[in-house]
Design goal:
Layout: E1 4-6, H1 11-16, E2 20-23, H2 26-39, E3 50-52, H3 53-62, H4 73-86, H5 94-113, H6 126-145, H7 153-157, H8 161-164, E4 169-173, H9 180-191, E5 195-199, E6 207-213, H10 216-233, E7 239-243, H11 250-263, H12 269-274, E8 279-280, E9 283-284, H13 289-300, E10 305-307, H14 308-315, H15 323-339, E11 344-346, H16 347-351, H17 360-371, H18 379-393, H19 405-420, H20 433-446, E12 448-449, E13 458-462, E14 473-477, H21 496-501, H22 509-524, E15 529-535, E16 537-538, E17 541-542, E18 554-557, H23 590-598, H24 600-607, H25 623-641, H26 644-648, H27 652-669, H28 676-699, E19 703-716, E20 724-736, E21 741-747, H29 766-774, E22 781-788, E23 791-798, E24 807-809, H30 820-840, H31 859-862, H32 864-867, H33 871-876
Helix pairs in contact: 4-5, 4-6, 10-11, 13-14, 23-24, 23-30, 25-27, 27-28, 29-30
Length: 877
Amino acid sequence: MTFAAVNRSEIAFRLKEKALLVCASPRLAAEWKRCLVAASTANVVATPPVESWQAWLAKLAREQTAIPVPLNQLQELQLWEQVIHADTKIAGSRASARGLARHAAEAYKLLCEYRIGAETLSGAGEEAEALQRWIRSMHNALAQKERILAADLPELLLPLIGSAAEHGEILLDGFDRFTPIQQSLLQALQKNGVSLVSVARGSSSPSLTLTACVDAISEYRHAARKIAAILQADPHTRIGVVTSRQVKDTETLRRILDETLLSSTQLSSAIRTAMQATAMAGAPLATAPLIRQLLNMLQLAGRNGAPHKELSPLLFSPGIRGYAEERTARAVLDAKLRENNRHYLNFRSLLAMDEMTELPQFAGVLQSLLDWEPNARSAGEWVKSVHSLLQSAGFLQVEAAGRSSGEIRQLNLFRESLSSLIAVDAVREQMAWSSFLSLLVSACNETPLSLTAHYPQISVLPLEQSTGHRFDVLFALGLDDEALPMPARPTPLLPLALQQRHNLPASTAALAFAESGFLWQQLLQEAPSIHVSFAEMREERELRPSPFLAGIKTTECNETVPAAEMPKRERFDDAPAVPLSAEEQVQGGSAIVRNQSLCPFRAFATHRLNLAPLGETVPGVTPAEKGSLLHQALQFIWEELRSQSALLALDEKAVEILIGKAVEHAWQHAHVTASKATQQFERRRMQRVLAEWLDIERERPPFSVERCEKAYRLELPESGTLRFPVRLKADRIDHDAEGRKILIDYKTGQKQSAGKWIGDRMPEPQLPLYTMAEELGENDAVCFARVRSGDMGYEGLSGEATGIQGVSIYKGNDEEAEEWTDLLACWKKRINALAAEFIDGRCEVMPQDARACDYCGLEAVCRIDEIGIDRDEENEA
Ligand code: SF4
């Protein structure tokens, strides 16, 4: 269907002459309204007569009393869901019915738009027949309610549209092609004397550049830098950033745009101050922190308890009433729960804890969650109940001190989303709490959270939604050969042959190609200057530019951190040494030396500022508790046996009894709390591990056990005037038949290696410290005993062959130590040097390498992620 065309420049005049502009999409209609208002010179401007196709038909239908009121989208989806769930031929959960409801609604809309009767679905396969049944049930339900679906509306309007239309001329813009029902409606209008005109596509050919970037990050940086330069030249330039479906990580794009624009030296400070964030089609409301907290609280309503990781965010949620007064006590309670490994929390026992007396407001919220009645009720009643729960919990008090305007906007959007669910009452009488909650979560996920456009000159929007927009400069990102042309995308539930017979959108590669061509042509109209780019590598796939870009010269770009354009950096020492004073008490044993060696800041923060990361709760027994239990059991065994010969003298049964007693002893002395079932499981595991370990001990050359858990106290550095105490405990000291001392340290957790005892800054100086405390000599040995299921054995170093598998004679691997005795002396010197550093207060953030940060937990304080690890130093090390 083609019509006479009118130039864009004439639109305003035609509208004044009582024409109506009908656009293919609501976004395009909004853009037209914006442009027309902006172009007007009048002081007061009436809303321009511009409608989207859907909105225009809905408006016409509202004036026709013969046409029933259509369901809104939410009501429609609910009804589809009910119908599908009630279909006895389809076995599935409510959740799967919800997923199918969207596909069914979409398929039905296409059938209506292409005027395909539901009877054509007969015999077209299982899915098509199911859809046919659901359509029938939908119509029955709608007839009872005297309602229709929005997709039915154009067909009902068809006989009435000629007389209903009020405008003598209708201008059409943004239509790729007209569907059969659109064609019929337009023909009916023409028959009634309405003049139809299409808005001419511009003929201007924009200036185009094409940049191939090494990866997506490089592409975003490239665009951001160019945008900063354009804004510097003219801060009022309207810039569009169009993203293809290849740009999935829009959050990273937003971050890079904001970071670059806000920190760019190319922008004047006035612009930077005005620009808070890039205006971008928003993330879902459900992702806003305040709304996440609120939904998280609702997930706990009506439950008796929850895992710690679900309750803990509630304790730190500023949205909950009483946060300002109780936040310290709430943090203390959380720390205690972590410390005691309360992995699952029963709300009643939590309320009975002594700490709760300090938290009356939080206790009140917890009690209301416990009292929550999850019995089925109508959506309207749920809306009221949720509203009053959130009100009493403090979330909805928008006037609460400290609420930012952004948070107030989020809360208002949330209220709207919540209230919109009342509409479900029209199609569903009652629903369970879980169904209502999942509906509420979906509503929050579907509500876009638009950021405040402090700097509205930049808009970021998906390629498919950009049609009709006009910018001064446009950036099109991700235009590779997988993005454009788009692949065929047949509609689920409709038979493919039927889709292809009726040319349904994107049902074949040819139709998808045509659709892509239309998008590309539209894109070329959006700005006089267009910068297209793509990433050559994405998710390990090599990509080429879209074939639509054939003939455009490609520029290569590898945009790394734009160091040259960063503000000039000044270097200053922000970690001057903070020497230990004589009055300061420090505690920490071998960990002080270890931490000083790994990273001076880690030692300073841990042992002088007493900072400790919050632990995580784990189900059952923690790894540390497992280690402690095994240590206790091994101590018991060797204090009983005292020698390998005593072990060899025991028969299988006697060993089993000994292990049983050791396990019992460990549980009595290790202060580990666990459920009976967990204890039983852990006891059995310990018995297996210990039996396996004793087999290893049997294989060693003969030995006797001199001491278990031998304690030492060192004063470090040995020669300093100011020293700190280090208390140590060696797990075991054996003597072999030749009188050599074998110092043993049990390791039940992560893998350890004797390789970590080498170098100036040893990553694991614990055993070298023991050798110093025990004053090991030239014939002695030191080793780990790895007591881990599936990874048993010794690993260590010695001056002479000990015959123990895994304990090797030292071979001079350390540059400074040729012999074993040299190494023992070196360890002493290095430990004293590290201790002296600690006394001197050396505290810079300088981890030895990336592994030094593993299990540290101080990242939030040292901010290593922002500083980065000095890779050169790491490589040199
Ligand atoms: S996280 Fe790394 S850099 Fe930070 S204190 Fe720990 S070891 Fe040092």
